Please model this.
Amino acid sequence: METLRVGAAFPDPPFNGMPDNTGLDIDLMTALVEKLGATVEFVPYEGADFNGIFDGLTAGTYDCITAGTTVTPEREKLANFLPPYLISGQSLAVDITRLSNVRSIDDLDGLTIGVQQGNTSQPIAERLVAQGRAAAVRVYDYGSIRAALTDLTTGECDAFMKLAPVLTELVKPIPGVDVVQRGISVEDIAIAVAPGDQKLLGRLTVAQAELEDDGTLQRIRAKWLGNPYADQNLAVH
Model:
């Protein structure tokens, strides 16, 4: 039986890294390979820069990437993407006990924004600094997300920006830290395959469309995100 090797960056809840190694992307790929009559093997990516995950496609380390991955023009030069299975956006978290006045990116004057290396939040934060709306950007290695969020409580970092579903999960166990703004951006989240693998792209695209049509994808989104809609920016939080 064919085994599909899937590149994933852990932990990235609710996409992966939930209890017992579960998550939205885990359920999605499990359902997809069932449609294909295959099995799935998740291959962890452990680089400091998330964009390095695409090297694994060209190197043949894995067949596709399912890691809550935003489609960008730069990434489209490195991979082909299926239609998005999710539309979401960046969000902002702060320690509301320490910075109770910060409710959005409009309140970051003089403050430092934390981001992960290679994350799509990085250019947004850098643009805010260039516009004089924030003081600085602090870039953390991709795997240092939990340490970065702890820095919000110590003052080592003032705010952190990351995709809303992930940041919402990650801040839950941290007292005083909360997501204060969502919908900062609108981003397509999609599965990536190697540029030359048109056959796999086609097979996965058809299988994903079938999962959307039969309601499986809606159930998966509802399970992990609280609502079934592809466009999570329409969700009421």
